[in-house]
Specification:
Helix content is about 30%, strand content about 25%. With about 130 residues, the chain is α+β, with helices and mostly antiparallel strands. The strands form three sheets. It has a three-stranded antiparallel sheet. About 15% of the residues are buried.
Length: about 130
């Protein structure tokens, strides 16, 4: 099996725990080579999924929780109302969470790096089983 680390390698851990051999094929030599840029806003449904994978707390510890996306204004720039995030009753998670891509990438890839899987660098076209056009 192969999975690009930039897509998140945490789902590989249960396969390893089940005794399956896992190889991560990297497009770039440096795991952090393609993830720099803008931040990520994680709505509560994403936080719930991250919680199921064991990552929500680390993401919240490294980020900025929020209760609203922003605000809505009319065409003249007059404030109308807030754009609230949606809390989930009974969930101990914020409606929204914002963090940087490098930090999210570090949180998601560190367990895989620590578990020392076999890894290799390969061109994307090869790792995805695709051929390049032209």
């Amino acid at each position: 099996m192969s999975e690009e680390a930039s897509a998140g390698t945490r789902p590989l851990s249960p396969w390893r725990q089940a005794g399956l051999a896992v190889t991560v094929l990297e497009r770039q030599h440096d795991l952090h080579s393609s993830i720099f840029g803008v931040g990520i806003i994680q709505p509560i449904n994403v936080l719930r999924a991250l919680d199921a994978l064991g990552f929500a707390q680390a993401c919240m510890d490294a980020a900025y929780p929020a209760s609203e996306w922003g605000a809505t204004y009319d065409v003249d720039g007059n404030y109308l109302h807030p754009m609230l995030g949606t809390p989930i009753e009974g969930a101990d998670l914020p409606p929204l969470n914002g963090l940087t891509r490098p930090k999210l990438h570090e949180i998601l890839t560190e367990p895989t790096r620590r578990s020392a899987p076999r890894s290799a660098t390969t061109p994307r076209s090869r790792s995805c089983g695709r051929t390049r056009p032209g």
